[in-house]
Structure formats: structure tokens, C-alpha cells
Specification:
With 563 residues, the chain is of the alpha+beta class. Helices cover 44% and strands 17% of the residues. Helix 3 packs across helix 4. It is elongated. The two termini are 25 Å apart. The relative contact order is 0.17.
């Protein structure tokens, strides 16, 4: 509302809520801190899990930051921005979601104190930006070289990532599976850099057995069964035909009528159909294929002839699975049976139909140099299987990050402490109030080692002081042994390492989110309409607000006592 010559002028519709200045900022910061606190206890190998129950009663048990925030129904707009931080971190690098959210919350908490000291938010955000750029530079400088040939580095990074999950008891086996899967699908691009597409690693889940029975299959699993009981269920050294077209008589695209004048013509018609199907099957048999994977339907008569030829057939397979099969077996995808050549067929050492629990699945494995593989996840219950799936996704992402970025840093809070120490030196070289913002950024980084210690039941301050002392002596990867509180001078020597790109992305995304929240000084929330759908504005009859159904025009806006 504005005043014009003493007359109030309505700018926004009635019921609109508005918060300005310090109130708006405090409200946004408080909401963001609540989100950070919600996931804080789940950080690190001693972190706890969350049980999330949705409106339908479905349960999710996890300590994955992105999953926790995705499952919570967040209403506050600033809190939603924190959820976006986790989503961005997860989609970019696949790990470090909890770290990025905790860091964003701590940056806002400490920035609030600077705002209370009358430091302008723009100055703070500019200081944060400089600190973030310097932090990325520091992390790159302290990184150690790794890559696709560094098996120890790949395994250690995957095990570090999984050590905080429910699967930590089986982390060695699962880390090896993740490493082998990424190495199988990794390819060099034109510039000679390694690229690994996680989409080429298919995940199949089935409750039953235990986490240790999770396995990597050098090939593909199809959630299908052999079309006819008379066909073989087990084929060794299989030549595989991948077919996109149907093995049946094509119907014409326009209406046709067949006029039959004598009974023999019916038999002639059926004989001709059979001959056409037999010709199709002969082309498949002649190609030498022992397994046919078809995207579309197969005629019953064709099934009979293929069964007699001792050929295994699977039909109605998804297009995406056919494409993965092509990458795994090296076979060409055909649309016309006339084009089939033996040298373009796929090959697998074993194709077998197996019963998993109550379902029949086709296993196509032992492929030569497959560019698409499958991880079959097992576990005691569906909840366990889902959490193993999330852990394996994180493990695959971490291994991919190391393969593509080729850089590692020590874990256990070491990179944060080292970066904070160097940032404080950098802050002293700056003039003006930005120096305070850079110091606050450095102090915020300490929240990671402090939270790790707190979740392990250790004293935060003692742990941080010991770490700082070790780093001042030149141990850039000094971290905490969370079992006893002792300092380990080099976390990489005990196999606790993380991809540099995960730490870099956590700093970037948390800085950008906190800067955006700090720059908001006005929140204008539109009034939520409680009007039934289809009713005209102003209530029944379309009257403007403030005018009753039976009152005189112009009287609705008068104050009490004036009528």
C-alpha cells in the first residue's frame, strides 16, 4: 500500500503478505539453517540414518543427504533453495550432498552475525565469492594425481564414500564392483580424456539373499523369459541376433478384402502364410544365430519353427535394453531380416534363463569387452536393497569422478581444515570489510571436521585444535581417527580419500546458494485463493470485495459508525 495525497493506493491484491529488510533476511536464514541441521547428524562414518514416512505410509531409511531432502515435503522458499543445493551436488558429482548443505547452513549462520554488525550483504557475498575461488585453487593445489590406472585410489575413494552407509560392512566388495563397472564402460574421447557414462551401468534389484551376494554381470539382464517352453533355456558361446522388427506377417496399412470362392483357397492362403513365416525363420537359422532378442512380437507359428531349430527367443524387449545389448555383445541391431550377416551378430559366453525369487530373468553374460554392464543388487528386505542401490550409485559416481577428473584429496575433514588455514592467510592480504567475509568463510569450513567429531561422540573443540596443530606442521592431509580421537597425519595412507571435484562442487554450490539467500531483503507472498473453482472474482454475483450482497453501492468501504 502506498499513500498519494493522503489517499491509500492499493498496489497488491488483498491478503498479500510482505516481509522486508532484517525480518525477511532472518526468516530465510533461519529456514536454511533448519534444513542444514536436519541432515547434520547423518554426516560421516558414525552418522545416523533417517526414517522418512510419506503420506501413504511408505518408508525410506537412508542417510543420503539428497534422498532425505527429496523425501521431505519442504514448504519454505529459502528451505527449497537448500534442497536444490543437494540436488545439484547429486546430479553433478553424485556425492557430498550432506557436506554441501551443512556448509551452506554454516555460511548463512555466520553471515547473519556480520549483518548484525552492519556489514552490507553485498560485501559479504563478494567476500564469499573471492573465498570460494581461492578455496578451489587451494584444493587443486593440494590434490594428488590419480586416474583409471590407479586401482588403489579408485577403490579407496569408493570405500570412503560407502563407509557412512548401511552397506559399510560389505564396502570392499561393493567398491570393487563399482570400480570394475566404471572401468568396463569408460571410453576415451577425441581429446584423449577418459569419460564414463553411468547410464551404461544397468541396475537390477531383487530382495533376497544378502548384500554380499550383489554381483557384477559383464553383460545384460532382461526382465523377460523365453517365449516357448520347448526352446533351450541355456546357451553357451551364443551368437545373438538383435531384431527391431516383428517376426510375423505384416498387416496391410489399408482395408483389404479377400474373396474366397472355393474351400481349397483357404488352405492355399494358410499355406502361403506358413511359407512366408518359414522363409523368415530360415533366414534367421541360416545366419547362425542361437539366440534371438526381438523388440516386437513373434507369431506362434514362428515360435514353433524357431523352437524346432533349437533357437532361444525373447520378445517384446525395450528399445533401451536392445541398445544396451548392442553395446554389451557388439551386435548390430537389424530391422530387416534380409540384411543379416553372421559377422554382425552379437556374442556372449552364456545366455541363460534363471529363476530369481518368483521371477524368470534372462542373463546374457561373459561378453567380450562389454560397453554396458549390470549390477544385480541383493539384500534382506526391499528397504535394504533400496539403500544399497543409493550407496552403489554414489560409489559409481565417485569412481567416475576420479576417472574423469584424475585428482584426489585426503578425507576425514583434512581438506577443509587445510583450506581454512590457507584462507585465513589470504584474508589478511585483503583490505576492507571483505576480509571479514573471507575469515567467516574459513571458519565455516571447520563445521565439517567438527560435525564428524560430534557424530563420533568426540569433543569438537579438542579435535579441531589437534587437527590445526597437525596442519601447521605441514601435514596437509591430517585428519581424525573417529574411533579414538587421535590425529592421523596422512588420511590417504589409511585409504580415506575423496575426489577433489566433490569438494570443489560442494564449495561452489553452497557458496552460490548462501549468496542468493543473503541478497534477499524483501519477500512478497501472494494471497492463496480459497475461492471455489469457477467462481468469479469478488464472490457470488461478481461483486467487488468489500461490497455485501444487499448493501448500497459505495457503502462497503466506509468505516464503522459512518452509515
Amino acid at each position: 500500500m502506498a499513500q498519494l495525497g493522503g489517499t491509500p493506493v492499493l498496489i497488491m491484491r488483498e491478503g498479500t503478505e510482505r516481509q522486508r529488510g532484517r525480518d525477511a533476511m532472518s526468516n530465510n536464514i533461519a529456514a536454511a539453517i533448519v534444513i542444514a541441521e536436519a541432515v547434520r547428524t547423518s554426516l560421516g562414518p558414525m552418522g545416523m540414518d533417517k526414517m522418512l514416512v510419506d503420506q501413504f505410509g511408505d518408508v525410506v531409511i537412508t542417510n543420503d543427504g539428497a534422498t532425505i531432502l527429496k523425501e521431505i515435503d519442504v514448504q519454505h522458499p529459502a528451505a527449497k533453495m537448500m534442497v536444490e543445493v543437494a540436488k545439484t551436488q547429486d546430479s553433478e558429482v553424485g556425492d557430498g550432498t550432506t557436506t554441501s548443505v551443512i556448509l551452506a547452513g554454516e555460511l548463512l549462520k555466520r553471515a547473519k552475525k556480520l549483518i548484525e554488525q552492519k556489514i552490507h550483504p553485498t560485501v559479504i557475498t563478494e567476500g564469499f565469492r573471492k573465498a570460494a575461488d581461492k578455496a578451489v585453487e587451494i584444493l587443486d593445489g593440494m590434490s594428488i594425481k590419480s586416474g583409471i590406472d590407479d586401482e588403489k585410489g579408485l577403490l579407496d575413494s569408493a570405500m570412503t564414500c560407502m563407509s557412512s552407509k548401511i552397506v559399510s560392512e560389505s564396502k570392499e566388495k561393493l567398491a570393487k564392483i563399482c570400480m570394475d563397472a566404471i572401468k568396463a564402460v569408460a571410453e576415451k574421447n577425441e581429446d584423449g580424456k577418459w569419460l564414463a557414462d553411468i547410464e551404461k551401468v544397468q541396475i537390477q534389484k531383487k530382495a533376497g539373499e544378502s548384500i554380499d551376494d550383489t554381483s557384477l554381470i559383464q553383460g545384460i539382464i532382461l526382465d523377460k523369459e523365453v517365449v516357448s517352453p520347448g526352446m533351450p533355456k541355456f546357451v553357451k558361446d551364443a551368437k545373438i541376433l538383435l531384431l527391431q522388427s516383428a517376426i510375423e506377417i505384416q498387416k496391410t496399412e489399408f482395408d483389404t478384402k479377400l474373396q474366397i470362392t472355393r474351400p481349397e483357397q483357404i488352405q492355399e492362403f494358410l499355406d502361403e502364410e506358413e511359407k512366408m513365416i518359414r522363409t523368415m525363420v530360415e533366414k534367421i537359422v541360416k545366419s547362425g544365430a542361437k539366440v534371438v532378442i526381438c523388440q516386437k512380437g513373434i507369431d506362434d507359428l514362428a515360435q514353433h519353427f524357431l523352437s524346432k531349430a533349437d533357437i532361444m527367443v525373447v520378445r517384446r524387449v525395450k528399445k533401451s535394453d536392445i541398445e544396451k545389448l548392442s553395446k554389451a555383445t557388439g551386435g548390430m541391431i537389424y530391422t530387416n531380416l534380409d540384411d543379416i550377416t553372421e559377422d554382425k551378430l552379437g556374442w556372449a559366453g552364456l545366455v541363460e534363463e534363471r529363476k530369481i525369487m518368483n521371477d524368470s530373468w534372462i542373463f546374457i553374460e561373459e561378453c567380450k569387452d562389454p560397453k554396458s554392464v549390470v549390477i544385480l543388487i541383493r539384500g534382506g528386505t526391499d528397504l535394504v536393497v533400496d539403500e544399497v542401490d543409493r550407496a552403489i550409485h554414489d560409489g559409481l559416481c565417485v569412481v567416475r569422478d576420479v576417472v574423469e577428473d584424475e585428482k584426489l584429496v585426503g578425507g576425514g575433514g583434512a581438506p577443509e581444515v587445510e583450506t581454512a588455514i590457507q584462507l585465513r592467510k589470504y584474508a589478511s592480504s585483503l583490505g576492507g570489510r571483505e576480509q571479514l567475509a573471507v575469515e567467516v568463510f574459513a571458519d565455516s569450513l571447520d563445521i565439517i571436521p567438527k560435525t564428524l567429531a560430534e557424530n563420533a561422540g568426540l569433543d569438537q573443540i579438542d579435535t579441531l585444535m589437534k587437527l590445526r596443530a597437525a596442519h601447521q606442521q605441514g601435514n596437509k592431509f591430517a585428519g581424525t581417527n573417529l574411533d579414538n580421537g587421535d590425529v592421523i597425519n596422512d588420511m590417504s595412507s589409511v585409504g580415506v580419500v575423496e575426489p577433489t571435484v566433490v569438494k570443489v562442487q560442494a564449495i561452489k554450490s553452497s557458496t552460490e546458494a548462501s549468496s542468493m539467500i543473503l541478497r534477499i531483503d524483501d519477500v512478497i507472498a501472494s494471497a492463496k485463493s480459497a475461492m471455489p473453482p469457477g467462481m468469479p472474482p469478488g464472490g457470488p454475483g461478481g461483486m467487488p470485495p468489500g461490497m455485501g450482497g444487499g448493501g448500497m453501492g459505495g457503502m462497503g468501504g466506509l468505516p464503522p459508525g459512518m452509515m
